[in-house]
Structure formats: C-alpha cells, structure tokens
Amino acid sequence: MQVDKPLILVTNDDGITSKGIKSLQSVMQEFGEVIVIAPNSAMSGMGHAITINSPLRLQKENIFEGAESYSCSGTPVDCVKLGIYEILHRKPDLIVSGINHGANTATNVLYSGTMSAAVEGAMEGIPSIGFSLCDFDADSDFSNAMKIVRQVTQQVLKNEMPKGVCLNVNIPKGNDVKGLKICRQAHAFWEDRFDKRFDQFNKPYYWLTGDFVEQDTTEDTDLYWIERKYASVVPTQFDMTAYKSIEILENWEL
Amino acid sequence: MQVDKPLILVTNDDGITSKGIKSLQSVMQEFGEVIVIAPNSAMSGMGHAITINSPLRLQKENIFEGAESYSCSGTPVDCVKLGIYEILHRKPDLIVSGINHGANTATNVLYSGTMSAAVEGAMEGIPSIGFSLCDFDADSDFSNAMKIVRQVTQQVLKNEMPKGVCLNVNIPKGNDVKGLKICRQAHAFWEDRFDKRFDQFNKPYYWLTGDFVEQDTTEDTDLYWIERKYASVVPTQFDMTAYKSIEILENWEL
C-alpha cells in the first residue's frame, strides 16, 4: 500500500451483489485503496436506521477484483460504522455510497439508505458522497454514470469538503447528460397509498406504494435539473435545525 | 365526535406497550380525539426507515382508555403513513410521538424513530412533535414530563407551526425542570465501538455500543440546556440542503 493512495470505503443499500456497487467500486480503484462493506441483502428505504436490538454479522467475501470486501447483515449506516471501527480501525479518506438503482432526489434523501451512509460519513468528519442513477432497473447501464462519479470524486479529493456536509449526486438515465448542477433538495413528496391484500387466513396485509408528487416549482432544485438532463449535486447536512423558525417560536408562550 | 375537537395521531418507537406512549396518550385525551398507531415491538434506532421489501401488518388493540389503537409490524414512519392513508383516510390535526424512553438530543435526531415519525408528519404538512424523556429506564417516572408535553401541545395547537418544520422536545429527568428553551441541535456524536462475541459455532457477531461525545461547546444547544435542567425545543426540518455550502461548491471545477 502506497502512503499517498487514499483509502476509500464503498457501500450501498441495494446490497453487495448489485450492479451499481460493482460500477462504483471499479471507478474507485482508479483513485486509491478500496474496501467494500455492504449489506448482504437489499436495504432500500432503511434511512438512517442502525441495528441495536439484534447482533450484526460480517462475512468476508471475494466479489470484487482488487478490493477487499465484506457483506453485512445490517443497514448501510451499520456498514459505515463497522467499516470504520471494526475493519479499518481508522477513518478512511473517502466514503462513497451507491451507485443507487433509482433516484434519491428531493425528500427521498431521508428514506434512502444510500444517502444515510454518506450522511453518517459526514458525521464522522469524512468526505462522503452518495451516488444515484435515476433508473430502478437492476440491469441499468451505469457506463455514463461512472463518468460523473469519476468527475465528482476527483473534485472531492482535490478540494476540502465543507464541515458537516456530504454530497447527494443524482445522475439522469441515458447517454445525453448535459453537465452538473449544484442545487438544493426539492420539496417534493410521496403521495402514499397502501395496497391492501388478504392472506390465506383472510387476514389483511399492506404493501406501501404511491406516487411521487412534485410540489416545488422553483428552478434551483435537484428534480428541476434532473428533468433537464443535468446531474444534480446537493450539499447535504446532518444539522436538521430549522434556524429560521427559532425566532418564530420565541414569540410563542413556551 | 365534536367538530371542533382536534384529531390527534399518537405514535412512538419504543412500542405500543411502553410506559411512555401511555403517558403521552393520556395527556392527548385532554386535547382531542386520539388514535394510537404504534410498532408492536421496540423500533429504537430505526431512523426514517420504511418497510418496502415486506408487507405490513396492522392489528386492532384494546390497550388505551378512550382511544382507538392499532399495533403495526413496521417502523414509526410506517405507522404515520398507515395512520393517515389507511386508518384515518385524512390528515390528523396533530401528530405526537413518544414519550421516548431516552434522549433524542443532538445528532440522535437522525437515528431516532420517534423523531422520524414527527419529521414524516412535517413532510405531510401536519403539526408534529417528538417528545423524549432523558431517562432510558422502562419504568421511568413520566409525571413531570407530562406537564411539559401539555404546555408544548397547547402552544402548538394555538399557534401556526412554521412550514416544513416539526418540534424535537427533550425533557430532563427529575422533578426540578426549570423551564423550556428554544435552541439548536448540538453537534455531538457517538464514538462507536463494537462488542465482538463468538456464537456456539465460534462465528463472530457484533453488538453496536459506544459513548456519546459532546464536541459542541456553544451555549445555545439542546445538550447545553438539558444539562442545566431545562427542557429543549429544537425546530427540526426535513430540508437537509447545506445552503451555505452551495457557494463553496460553485468554486469547485464541477
């Protein structure tokens, strides 16, 4: 191991055998020493969940060429914690998560295990990036996304990431991506529905489903640029304080 | 049901049989029509997780005096979604989550299922509050916390909650709480460790553990006021954009 080579931790939420993490790992090999620690099954929608009520399992794998790899029974955030404290025993120089099969734009950042791994990295003071391709297909073509991954990674390694911040990078589907835009998280939401079904004992069960509703019509959001074929880069922070509301609440009789 | 009575959805992450949710429900009965939908088991640390890879179960219960109640196989955020879209079929006037057994100060807001239920409420445009007592004991004395819950709920029903914002209320242990302080999320973190053990087949497994490290020495944080025996109220938003970093990133060669 060369001293000047950055140590890069790769994770995701689609699971260690997904095509997206393989694409991400292969780009990262160009930049440094790579270690992959990712869930052993799909962990989409796990948000910032951590496993505290059951023990975690970690299994050494031999999946990636040139990179040590481990599958984990836990969530993406568990993977980051196990990576730093149990496998590496030091903080890596970079954490990358993805490439997610499907967009993590707008408020999806809160539900996304992929992005939560990057947010966890920011909490540890490590430059961290979550990458998502706006295509849910398990067999998506990641070749164009890999170019964007390369471009953003170069800049993150070259510049100093602002404190308490990670990057949420979403990449449009297709080969006609026009460029990159730095922007903000759109205020768009899921309009939830439940698909109610009945089991063999005639007891109901529910599948969460719904439509994504864009309520934000302003121009500087991730959704706005994705629709116009730009990759979006949203600097994302873990400080959830609504600073502008502090003054409003001061006028309440609390 | 009187028309002027607010409809209040109660949830938590410690599970429907916990003492904290019982205390919260009993205070809410003073304010309106109450419906309880909470996890059927402990869901601490589930963050903003949603259940998308397995179906959800919902069971009518008869646990609370004066309130309809349902236990759910999913996460606190699942409970909020099921409550709105499958049980109530309309948005409640208020969502309250807790009273959590243990603090949700500082960055714990990201890991907390209790607070994520409140954040989900804010995403739905519903006034929402997460309450936590800084005492992990399953048999905590909630009597003093209930006074703070009453006081904050009165103000939330009386005033207009800022858009996109919910409240994170933490209450110190004991009967000597001095008052309430509106403040910001402290930048304190877990210094994680894993307790590595071996099972009967000599295979390793890991329990997540660690110490909470206060790195934020400024005066206006939730941790600062909790230590001084004040209840903390942090307005909390789901917009995670690091606005101040947008300009910094504009100077990168992206």
Mind sketching the topology for me?
The structure is a homodimer of 254-residue chains.
Chain A: E1 7-11, H1 19-28, E2 33-39, E3 58-61, E4 68-72, H2 76-88, E5 94-101, H3 108-111, H4 113-123, E6 128-133, H5 143-158, E7 165-171, E8 179-182, E9 188-198, E10 204-214, H6 222-227, E11 230-237, H7 243-250
Descriptive notes:
The structure is a homodimer of 254-residue chains. By secondary structure, the first copy, chain A, is α/β, with parallel strands linked by helices. Chain A has one domain (7-185, 219-239): Survival protein SurE-like phosphatase/nucleotidase (Stationary-phase Survival Protein Sure Homolog, Chain: A, 3-Layer(aba) Sandwich), CATH 3.40.1210.10. Helices cover 27% and strands 30% of the residues of chain A. The first copy, chain A, contains seven helices and eleven strands. A nine-stranded mixed beta sheet of chain A has the order 3-4-2-1-5-6-7-11-8, with helices on both faces. In chain A, strands 9-10 form a two-stranded antiparallel sheet. In chain A, strand 6 (128-133), helix 5 and strand 7 (165-171) form a beta-alpha-beta unit. The N and C termini of chain A lie far apart (58 Å). The mean pLDDT of chain A is 95. At the A-B interface, helix 2, helix 3, helix 4, helix 5 and strand 9 of A face helix 2, helix 3, helix 4, helix 5 and strand 9 of B.
